[in-house]
Each structure stands twice: as structure tokens, then as C-alpha cells.
Write a structure and sequence with these properties.
This protein has 240 residues and is mostly helical. It has one domain. It contains twelve helices and no strands.
Length: 240
């Protein structure tokens, strides 16, 4: 257990260091510019949504799933994680579609700024929203792996994200707003692929079309309701 804790801690430090390096690279290449401002504003909605989804999974999914794994209810655990995966992908796709179709309206929920800045942020939000699916799926699969006491891959995945995003930005011919956004999307995809490879290596099944875990799924969805008011309060408290 101590060894696993040490591994997770080391990978966490490495991931934070790589993320800091990307921030330093952005500052060196673009400095204080409208592109960086638009990038940061365009990320508010996707980051907020992915944070809420991750917190909900921690509260509502992990406890019940770990209980099923511990009690060796393999078929029910497989049905539960399969239905949850289907729901998470569907929910993340829906949020992505809303950001693609209604970027200005989505940004209006989080900020009030000059129309030109809103337009630039909306330009960044459209592609930036594509991080929602890989981040949500990657976080979910990481929680599944942790519940099976496999921590190495889940801890390494954020490092892959930061490394790919930073390297991509360094290799981009003429860094601009598109470079900032698309390298971030590439990093998010890399994180998801790393965790998916770990799941594949474990041989876990994800049956999607089954009603075996319907009561557990329903209970998990209901537990999301108390989180909505707190999320709205946090949003209301954010400076605009």
C-alpha cells in the first residue's frame, strides 16, 4: 500500500511539473495576449463541467462499485460500469454539442465581458469543448482501475496528458490560439487512451445493453441532484 501511495505521489508531482512547464511555454511563446485570454476564458465551461462530473463520480459511483468488486459480484459490477460508461459518454457528448452550437450562451453563464472578447472566447470554446469526452471517460476509467487496486496507469495518465500537450505546443510551427486549444485536446485524448489501454490489459468487460444494474444506476443518477445546487452556487460566486 505504501509503495502504491508513493507511485501515485511521484506521478502526481511529475504531472504537475509538466503542467507548469506548459504554462511556462505558453508564457514564453505568447506572453500576455488576446489569444491567451481567449484560451483561458474558453476553458472555463469545459473545466467546470468535467470537475462536476468527476466530483459526482467520486461521491456516487466509487463507493458502490468498490463494494461490488470487494464482494466479488463480477457480473453486477460489469453491468454497473458498462451502463455508467454509456451514460457518461452520452452526457459528455451532449455537453460538447451544446458548447459547439451555443458557445456564446454557454459563456454567458460564466462571464460578462466585452463582445470582442466573448467572440474570441467562443472561438476557443468550440474546439476546447472536445476535451469533455476524453476527460470524463478517462476519469471514470481511472476510478474503475483504482477500485480494482491498479493505481499505476491511472496515476501516469495525467502525466501523458501534460507531456503531449506541452510537446505539441513546442512543435507547433506558429503557436496561436488554435495551437493552445488543439494541443490541449490532443493531451486529453492521450490521457484517455493511456487509461483505456490499462483497462484493456485488465480484461474488464463493459456490457452496455443490460438492465442488471438498473437500480444502482438509478441511485447513482439521483445522487447527482444534490450536487447541482452547489455547482450553481460556485458558478454564481465566480468573478465575472
Amino acid at each position: 500500500m505504501l509503495r502504491s501511495t508513493g507511485i501515485v505521489t511521484l506521478f502526481g508531482i511529475a504531472a504537475q511539473s509538466a503542467a507548469f512547464l506548459r504554462t511556462a511555454v505558453i508564457a514564453a511563446l505568447l506572453g500576455v495576449s488576446p489569444a491567451v485570454d481567449a484560451y483561458n476564458l474558453g476553458l472555463i465551461a469545459p473545466i467546470f463541467a468535467s470537475t462536476v462530473i468527476g466530483a459526482w463520480l467520486q461521491v456516487a459511483f466509487v463507493g458502490r462499485y468498490a463494494e461490488l468488486v470487494t464482494s466479488r459480484s463480477d457480473d453486477l459490477a460489469a453491468a454497473y460500469r458498462g451502463r455508467m460508461l454509456l451514460f457518461i459518454v452520452g452526457g459528455a457528448l451532449l455537453l460538447t454539442a451544446l458548447c459547439l452550437v451555443l458557445p456564446r450562451q454557454i459563456l454567458g453563464l460564466f462571464m460578462s465581458a466585452h463582445p470582442e472578447m466573448v467572440a474570441s472566447a467562443a472561438t476557443a470554446l468550440r474546439p476546447a469543448s472536445m476535451i469533455l469526452v476524453p476527460i470524463a471517460v478517462g476519469d471514470f476509467l481511472s476510478l474503475v482501475m483504482n477500485s480494482h487496486r491498479h493505481f499505476f496507469v491511472a496515476a501516469a495518465a495525467p502525466l501523458a496528458n501534460a507531456a503531449v500537450a506541452t510537446l505539441g505546443l513546442l512543435l507547433w510551427p506558429n503557436p496561436d490560439l488554435s495551437a493552445l486549444v488543439w494541443t490541449l485536446v490532443a493531451g486529453s485524448a492521450a490521457q484517455c487512451l493511456v487509461v483505456a489501454a490499462g483497462i484493456f490489459n485488465l480484461g474488464l468487460r463493459f456490457p452496455l445493453w443490460t438492465s442488471a444494474a438498473a437500480p444502482d444506476l438509478h441511485r447513482t443518477l439521483l445522487l447527482a441532484l444534490p450536487m447541482l445546487p452547489s455547482a450553481m452556487l460556485v458558478n454564481a460566486a465566480m468573478p465575472r
